[in-house]
Design brief:
By secondary structure, this protein is of the alpha+beta class. It folds into two domains: 1-56; 77-291. 16% of the residues lie in helices and 48% in strands. The protein is built from five helices and 14 strands. It has helices at residues 23-26, 28-53, 116-120, 193-199, 252-255; strands at 77-86, 89-101, 104-113, 123-132, 138-147, 150-159, 164-171, 176-183, 209-215, 218-234, 237-247, 258-264, 271-278, 281-291. The protein is globular.
């Protein structure tokens, strides 16, 4: 029945079709489709604008590992021993045994805390690595670390044919293990062999060089900055050296603060001092003795 003189479906004399439900109620699917398409267009335009204002960074270019120069003579057998100082006292002793086996430079290292540090936080670490003296490619890196109550054993191997690196890590306290796999380029360096690989390169002040480093299941680019020549005094003697700083945008080299290595300014390029500036202090390893037998 008419209400207030108006017919049902009309409003103050306007045609009845003006009082019908809006388009969104009559055609909900069509309405949502149109809104969605409009929003997608806005989002696409916003993404295009964002890409213009903030373009994505270029893809990371991993450098090729340059082989050691044929003229460089790797030591046949050598033992380097360092005192590791923290603040004003000696905290540890580190040793490297280097031996050439065919075309492989084999490196075995140890690091043990001494004195009062052992009572506070005992460290007994062992490391093994090696690299091909012809190509520079790392053959793998193993370590057995006992730091406080933590005991970990890990083995990192490289399969260059398949372009894969595999890490097997065992927690000797919890009796657990894990295995990780990641891709690698045609040739990489490991973090311990890198110290002696760098010594094979031409270290000219002002001429930096880069190489790929396998680090925490990633391949990062390490830049070696050849900074200056300095005279360094160590327990093993006084040496004319070349100071080199390794840098990286990620990984262990970056996370360990600033690091410097001093190599002898001669044909050997023997590392005689290493310094790491960390947030909790500075650690300096100085050559205590060296033997070539």
């Amino acid at each position: 029945m008419p209400v207030g003189g108006l017919r049902r479906g009309t409003f103050r004399g306007f045609p009845s079709q003006l009082c019908e439900p809006p388009l969104s109620k009559r055609f909900p699917v069509v309405f949502l489709f149109l809104v969605t398409m409009w929003l997608m267009g806005v989002d696409a335009r916003a993404q295009t604008l964002a890409q213009r204002l903030f373009p994505p960074p270029p893809p990371v270019q991993i450098p090729t590992l340059e082989p050691p120069p044929p003229s460089y003579a790797f030591p046949t057998k050598e033992t380097l021993t360092y005192t590791v100082d923290w603040r004003v006292f000696t905290a540890a002793v580190a040793s490297f045994q280097i031996e050439q086996q065919g075309t492989v430079q084999k490196i075995t290292a140890s690091a043990d805390t001494v004195g009062g540090v052992t009572m506070l936080f005992p460290v007994i670490d062992r490391f093994q690595s090696g690299f091909d003296t012809k190509t520079g490619c790392s053959m793998g890196f193993s370590k057995q670390t006992q730091e406080g109550r933590r005991k970990i054993s890990s083995d990192l191997s490289f399969n260059y044919k398949d372009g894969k690196q595999t890490l097997v890590e065992r927690n000797l306290v919890k009796a657990t293990s894990k295995q990780l796999t990641a891709s690698i380029p045609a040739c990489v360096m490991d973090s311990m062999s890198a110290i002696f690989y760098v010594g094979s390169q031409s270290l000219t002040v002002g001429q930096d060089f880069r190489f790929p480093l396998a680090d925490s299941m990633r391949t990062v680019t390490v830049t070696m900055k050849v900074e200056a020549k300095e005279e360094i005094k160590t327990p093993a003697g006084t040496f004319q050296t070349i100071r080199v700083q390794p840098t990286a945008d990620e990984g262990v080299v970056k996370n360990r603060g600033k690091i410097w290595i001093w190599y002898t300014d001669d044909a050997r390029h023997m590392p005689v001092q290493v310094r790491a500036s960390l947030f909790w202090g500075t650690i300096t390893a100085r050559l205590q003795s060296y033997e070539t037998k």
